[in-house]
Design a protein that fits this description.
The complex is a heterodimer of chains A (281) and B (275). Chain A is mainly α and 281 residues long. Chain A contains 13 helices and no strands. The radius of gyration of chain B is 19 Å and the shape is globular. Chain B contains nine helices and ten strands. In chain B, a hairpin with a 2-residue loop joins strand 4 and strand 5. The chains are: A mainly alpha (281), B alpha/beta (275).
Chain lengths: 281, 275
C-alpha cells in the first residue's frame, strides 16, 4: 500500500537540529548584548549618582560590588546565602508538587472543583506575610516556619494555573485517553499534566519569584539566618554597603533561578511547535 | 439457539443537556445489528446525532435507555475490543508524544516487546514506518490521520468506529485514506462502523448504509450496497449502480432533514435477516 507522499514542510524539519534550539536558548537566557548594555547603563547611572550626591546612605556601585564579593566569599555564604537557597528550593518543590497535583485533580473532577473555587479564592486573598505571626506560633522560629510560609504563598499561582488548564483540557484528548483505557494516575501523568504544562510552567515561574519575595520577609521576622536576616542585620548595624550587597545577592539569586527555570521550561516544552520553531517569546 | 449477533444495538435513546440546562433528545430508539467483519456506514443530516450515537457505541457515553450488546454480552465502559478514529486528528494525537508513543497508548496493556512489534506493524501498514520518531505536528493532515489509524489498528480491534475520519483533509488525500481503510479492513477482518455525511464515501466503502433521521434521530432505513469488491475509486464510483444507490440515499437523507422532527421513531434497521 502506497500512501500519499510526505508533505512535511521543510521549515519544520529545518527547525529540528540543535543549532536553532541553542540560539533560542541563548536568547531566552537574556544574554543578548542589548540586555547587557541596559544593565551596564543602570550601573553607570548608579555610580555617577552616588559620586555626585556623596551620601553615606548611597555607596557607589563599585563599593556595593566589592561588598558583594566580600559577602559571597565570607562566612555569610554558608551562614545566610546557602540556607536561603535551600529554603527556597524546598518550599518551591512543596508548593509546585502540591499546586500541580491538587490543581489538576480539582480541575479534572469538575464537581469537586466547583466546591473548591470559593475556598481557593478566599485563601489566596490572604497576603502571605500575614501568615508569619501565626506560623511562628505554630512552628516556632527558624527554617520550618520560613519554608511553610513561603510554600503557602507560592502554591497559589501554580494551583490556579493547573486548575484552569485542567478544566480547559481538550475534550477529545480525554475521549482519546478513555478509548485507550487510560485512567486515574495514568491519565494525570500521560494526558492532564502534559496538556496543562505550558500553563503550569507559567504558574511555577511566578511561584519562584513569589518564593524569594516572601522568603526575605519571613527571614527578617522569624529566622536567625538567611539573606533576609543578613540584610536586616546589616541595616541595623549601619553596614550600608553590606545592605546593598545583600539586595544585589538576592537579585542575583532571583536572576539565576529564573534563568535555570527558563532552560528547564524550554527543555520540557520542546515538543511544542512554537518552541521547536524557535518563536517562543 | 442461534449464535448472538456480533454487535446488537437495541432501542438506544440518548439526550444531552446543553450549557443552559435544556435537555435535547439526540438519539431515539436506535436499533441496528452488525455482523462480524461487516462494513456499515451511518449517514444523516448534519446535527442528527451521528457522533453521539458513535460515542454511545464506543462506551464514551451511556445511553439513557436501550442496550448495546457484543456477542450477547452487554457492553460496560469502553470495550477493549474496539478502537475509535475521530475527525479531528489534531486533537486526538497528543502533540507532546512522538508518533510511536502516540500509537503505544493503544497497546499499553501488553508486554513491551510484543507492543513494539504491533506498533512497527501498524505504522508500516499505514506507510509511516519512517516517521515513528517525528512529532505529529511535523506531519501533514493526512499523515496525522494515518497515525490515528495506526493507533486504532495496533490494538487489533474486532470493531473500528470512525467518526467522519476523512472530513478534515483535501479530496485527493481523502480518496487515498478511504482506500487505505478498505485495504486494512480487508486484511485485518474487523467490522467497521463509519459515521459520515458524505453519501458517496459511505457507498464506496460499505456493505450496508443506514440512513439516520433528523434529531432526535432514529434509523429510517438501510440500503444494501451490492457493488463488487475489491472496489476502486475510478471503477466503482463510475458504475451505474453506484449512482442509483447514491440517489436513493440522497433522497432518504433529504427527506430526513425535512421531516426528521415529526418522525415518531418507529424506524428499524435489522440487517441480520435481510440478506
Amino acid at each position: 500500500m502506497t500512501g500519499p507522499a510526505p508533505r512535511v514542510l521543510p521549515a519544520l524539519l529545518a527547525a529540528k537540529p540543535g543549532g536553532g534550539r541553542r540560539r533560542v536558548a541563548r536568547r531566552r537566557l537574556g544574554l543578548r548584548s542589548a540586555g547587557w548594555l541596559g544593565v551596564l547603563a543602570v550601573a553607570v547611572a548608579w555610580q555617577l549618582a552616588a559620586l555626585a550626591l556623596h551620601r553615606p546612605t548611597l555607596p557607589t556601585f563599585t563599593t556595593a560590588l566589592a561588598a558583594v564579593g566580600q559577602v559571597v566569599t565570607g562566612p555569610a555564604l554558608t551562614a545566610d546565602i546557602l540556607p536561603s537557597l535551600a529554603r527556597t528550593l524546598i518550599a518551591f518543590a512543596i508548593a509546585g508538587a502540591a499546586g500541580v497535583i491538587v490543581g489538576l485533580t480539582l480541575g479534572y473532577v469538575r464537581s469537586l472543583g466547583d466546591y473548591a473555587v470559593a475556598v481557593i479564592d478566599f485563601l489566596r486573598s490572604v497576603p502571605a506575610p500575614l501568615l508569619i505571626p501565626l506560623a511562628i506560633v505554630l512552628l516556632g522560629l527558624g527554617t520550618p516556619m520560613v519554608v511553610a510560609v513561603v510554600a503557602a504563598a507560592a502554591v497559589w499561582p501554580v494551583l490556579i494555573n493547573a486548575f484552569d488548564a485542567a478544566r480547559r483540557t481538550e475534550p477529545l484528548y480525554l475521549d482519546t485517553a478513555r478509548s485507550c483505557g487510560i485512567r486515574g494516575v495514568s491519565l494525570l501523568r500521560i494526558v492532564l499534566l502534559p496538556a496543562a504544562l505550558p500553563m503550569v510552567l507559567a504558574g511555577l515561574r511566578i511561584a519562584l519569584s513569589t518564593c524569594l519575595a516572601v522568603l526575605v520577609v519571613a527571614e527578617m521576622l522569624g529566622a536567625s539566618s538567611g539573606i533576609g536576616y543578613f540584610i536586616q542585620g546589616a541595616q541595623q548595624t549601619f553596614q550600608i554597603p553590606q545592605t546593598y550587597a545583600g539586595i544585589l545577592v538576592l537579585a542575583g539569586v532571583g536572576w539565576l533561578f529564573d534563568t535555570m527555570f527558563l532552560l528547564a521550561e524550554h527543555r520540557l516544552l520542546r515538543w511544542e511547535p512554537a518552541v521547536a520553531r524557535g518563536r517562543h517569546a | 439457539m442461534p449464535e448472538p449477533p456480533f454487535l446488537s444495538v437495541v432501542g438506544v435513546s440518548k439526550s444531552l443537556t446543553s450549557a443552559d440546562g435544556r435537555v435535547l433528545p439526540v438519539n431515539r430508539d436506535v436499533t441496528l445489528t452488525v455482523r462480524p467483519g461487516e462494513f456499515v456506514s451511518i449517514v444523516g443530516p448534519s446535527g442528527a446525532g451521528k457522533t453521539t450515537l458513535l460515542r454511545t457505541l464506543g462506551g464514551l457515553t451511556t445511553p439513557d435507555s436501550g442496550t448495546v450488546r457484543h456477542r450477547g454480552e452487554p457492553t460496560r465502559g469502553v470495550p477493549s475490543w474496539l478502537s475509535m478514529v475521530f475527525q479531528e486528528y489534531n486533537k486526538t494525537l497528543f502533540p507532546w508524544l512522538s508518533v510511536r508513543k502516540n500509537v503505544r497508548l493503544a497497546v499499553r496493556h501488553i508486554p513491551r516487546a510484543a507492543a513494539d512489534l504491533r506498533i512497527d506493524e501498524a505504522l508500516a501498514q499505514v506507510g509511516l514506518a519512517d516517521f515513528a520518531d517525528h512529532y505529529p505536528w511535523e506531519l501533514s493532515g493526512g499523515m496525522q490521520q494515518r497515525v490515528a489509524l495506526a493507533r486504532a489498528m495496533a490494538s487489533q480491534p474486532e470493531l473500528l468506529l470512525m467518526d467522519e475520519p476523512f472530513a478534515s483533509v483535501d479530496a485527493l488525500t481523502r480518496a487515498k485514506l478511504e482506500d487505505m481503510v478498505l485495504a486494512l479492513w480487508q486484511q485485518a477482518g474487523f467490522a467497521a462502523i463509519l459515521v459520515t455525511h458524505d453519501i458517496g464515501e459511505a457507498i464506496y466503502l460499505s456493505d450496508r448504509v443506514l440512513a439516520l433521521s433528523g434529531r432526535p434521530s432514529t434509523i429510517l432505513s438501510e440500503v444494501r450496497v451490492d457493488l463488487p469488491r475489491p472496489r476502486s475509486q475510478s471503477v466503482t464510483r463510475a458504475l451505474p449502480r453506484f449512482h442509483e444507490l447514491s440517489s436513493r440515499l440522497l433522497a432518504l437523507v433529504e427527506h430526513a432533514g425535512q421531516e426528521g422532527r415529526e418522525h415518531d421513531g418507529q424506524g428499524r434497521a435489522d440487517a441480520g435477516d435481510q440478506r
